[in-house]
Amino acid sequence: MKKTLIFLLAALLLALSGCGGGGTDADEVDYVSFTGTVSSVAEHELEVEVTEGSGTIASGSVVALFPDAIELDVDEGDLVQVWYNDEVMTSEPPQVNAVSYEILQEADPADESTAEPEAAASTTVQVLEEPQAEATVTELTPNTAMEVSLSTGTAQVLVSAVDVDGNVSISLSLDDMVVDIGEFGRLGSAYLLGLDDGRSFVLLDADYASDDYVTFLYEITDGSLAEQSRLEDVSLQSATVSAEQLYLRVHVDVLGSYDSYMDYIIDDAGALQATSDFYEIPTDDSDWHLLTVTKELPVTLDGEATTLPVGTQLRLTGTDNQQTAYFVLEDIGETGSITYTRGEGDESYLLYIDGVSEYDYFEMLPYAG
After folding, report:
1. In 131-243, beta strands by DSSP E
2. Hey, which end of the chain has fewer CB within 10 Å, N or C?
3. Section 121-127 average pLDDT
4. Rounded mean pLDDT of 314-343?
5. Contact 350, 256 (CB under 8 A)
6. What does pTM read for this prediction?
7. DSSP string covering 67-98, please?
């Protein structure tokens, strides 16, 4: 019987091949294994029907092993034992991180029997390190379902936006599971994110009114939706959402109202986290964002405390949104910073510089609303 040449993809074990000699027995490594019959052999795919499962692989399921650079003669009906790291990757059928496997019994060419094996010589195959999955970003169209592949199979993701008394009721669904996000003035943008570690998320934003955005992040876990982040004043509009970068727009009120930008990551817990404490404010040539000093202003220039005289003009370039605003001088391009504190209680919107109201230092502050 002619054998088909297979290449077995796996996770791990360039380390095994580096242990010396011509091969390493999988029993020397702390992995779990399952036994099954090869049900399908193609040039770039091997599928196994599991007869005796363990770990996250159950008996009766079908799993896939994908090719890379290890050669093994195998055929449909062969009984094999597969060692893996007890993790299952999202695909259909599910894919495992195999460490090695053995042919326990070759298929009977007469009847292709899959009976339990008698004592037989085994062939142990080592596998190479698994290539990292590719991160993907797909824009979701409102009220249009999109299919997503999960470890449990495929599911339908739907972002719904329904008009209700002049507002928009927004919900997110995964098959029969529906999460009510709330009522807003409008839905902004929505994306399906596939990370290179196999996790899947839905990222979307919604506007209450007049650019009052909220950004949401939901993780798709075990066929369900879990809210991981809800960020007020953060928007996907005029932002960069790609497989390489989440550069999101953030509204800040510091010596005026500004659209700033911050790089975000999705951390190990599945939440959106800013990558620094500097919110970049793009400068422009508008008079609206040009600040004119009307009272000697305490600042830091070149690391030295000093004051800017009356009549000085500057533009903000960023802030930590906590206690520091960064600026560039309009005429000479020199940069510096201003330290401020926020008021308390009903005056939490007001900033103070050296104990004096921000409004006392400038001719006009470009606050919106």
Report:
1. 136-139, 146-150, 153-164, 167-174, 177-184, 186-194, 200-207, 213-221, 224-232, 234-241
2. C
3. 53
4. 97
5. no
6. 0.64
7. -SS-EEEE-TT-EEEEEEEEEEESSSS-EEEE
